[in-house]
């Protein structure tokens, strides 16, 4: 609503109206006052939706409501939340108070711009947690991994176990798929060319693209979404691929003859960040810290094939479920986290070169 008169000099009618409104508010019955107070004690949390919402509701939202009396309203966020996150901080128009963010892709940028609400966390606050899952302003709560997956009906005697095997089209013939993104794909190209997994960074882009040149003619599908990747390996449209472990596990759960290779996987950490300046920051900080609890994180794994960041959670995870998760000790030891710092500094350059290479 807009007014034609000066808002700093309201008319007598407006003054009387505001006074009447204040008097009415003071006369509200106690029950109505409690309703207003209850509405104020709520937190709007955004997540990727679908199975994430169900998992987070079970593990975090409902237990937090029960423990604190603060209602958690969940909404689905954009697939890439950083632009919306930044816009909310800059305009102070907060449509949610907490959201999931990925360490390698999102946190370095948001931290460099000062867009994250200070929380003051440290690793020692959460016994058992992976050190890389905690920054001062962000807490990782689950881990997924980009892995090699293959069809067991195609490779019955000898199967690919490394990215060098994936690149070996003579020894392991078959239809192949990689992600249409430089993220993970450049690392996989270097691993295929013999770079040790603990020596990947800084990425040698020239070497990576020379390696990609070798496999490019043999790629049948450059996938762009998790759903597309799952369908490709589940249906048998491809025989081996780079994919997210959760999507490969979904194909396995759907009875497809698919196997995950954890060796040389590249894991990512998802967790909670708060847009700086949200009026419900104190509630949000309570919520973020609450999610570091190992018992809470164990509940995520009932709905998602993602690993907890607090490794004490494995004490409460069924023994037959644990081997399916990225942070199970046997799986984690052969993987690494892509460098958040390298990608923060080089993502634009690497993406432009990758996109141009695909078209060449």
Automatic annotation (TrEMBL):
**One Gene Ontology cellular component annotation held by this UniProt entry:** outer membrane-bounded periplasmic space
The record's keywords, sorted A to Z, are:
Periplasm, Signal, Transport
Location comes to:
Periplasm
An example Gene Ontology biological process: thiamine transport
Instruction: Report if keyword Transport is assigned.
Output: yes
Query: Molecular function (GO) terms listed?
Result: thiamine binding; thiamine pyrophosphate binding
- SUPFAM superfamilies from the entry? Periplasmic binding protein-like II
What are the boundaries of the signal sequence? 1-38
Query: According to its UniProt record, which protein family does this protein belong to?
Result: Belongs to the bacterial solute-binding protein 1 family.
Name by which UniProt lists this protein? ABC transporter substrate-binding protein
């Amino acid at each position: 609503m807009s007014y034609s008169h000066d808002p700093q000099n309201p008319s007598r009618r407006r003054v009387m109206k505001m006074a009447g409104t204040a008097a009415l508010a003071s006369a509200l019955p106690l029950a109505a006052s409690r309703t207003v107070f209850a509405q104020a004690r709520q937190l709007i949390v955004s997540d990727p939706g679908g199975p994430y919402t169900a998992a987070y509701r079970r593990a975090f939202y409902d237990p937090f409501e029960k423990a604190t009396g603060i209602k958690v309203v969940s909404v689905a966020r954009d697939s890439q939340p950083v632009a919306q996150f930044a816009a909310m901080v800059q305009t102070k128009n907060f449509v949610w108070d907490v959201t999931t963010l990925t360490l390698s892709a999102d946190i370095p940028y948001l931290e460099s711009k000062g867009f994250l609400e200070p929380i003051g966390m440290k690793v020692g606050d959460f016994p058992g947690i992976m050190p890389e899952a905690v920054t001062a302003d962000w807490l990782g709560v689950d881990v997924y991994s980009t892995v090699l997956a293959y069809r067991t009906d195609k490779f019955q005697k000898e199967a690919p176990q490394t990215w060098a095997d994936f690149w070996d089209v003579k020894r392991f013939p078959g239809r192949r798929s990689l992600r249409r993104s430089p993220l993970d794909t450049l690392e996989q190209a270097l691993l295929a060319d013999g770079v040790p997994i603990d020596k990947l960074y800084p990425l040698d882009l020239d070497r990576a693209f020379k390696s990609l040149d070798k496999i490019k003619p043999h790629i049948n599908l450059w996938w762009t979404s998790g759903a597309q990747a799952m369908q490709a390996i589940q249906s048998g449209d491809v025989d081996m691929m780079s994919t997210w472990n959760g999507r490969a596990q979904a194909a396995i759960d759907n009875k497809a003859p698919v196997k995950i290779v954890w060796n040389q996987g590249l894991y990512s950490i998802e967790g909670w960040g708060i847009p700086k300046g949200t009026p419900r920051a104190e509630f949000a900080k309570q919520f973020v810290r609450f999610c570091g609890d190992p018992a809470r994180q164990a509940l995520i794994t009932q709905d998602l094939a993602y690993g907890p960041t607090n490794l004490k959670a494995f004490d409460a995870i069924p023994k037959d479920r644990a081997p399916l998760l990225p942070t199970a000790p046997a799986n984690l030891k052969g993987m690494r986290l892509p460098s958040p710092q390298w990608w923060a500094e080089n993502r634009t350059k690497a993406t432009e070169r990758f996109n141009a290479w695909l078209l060449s």
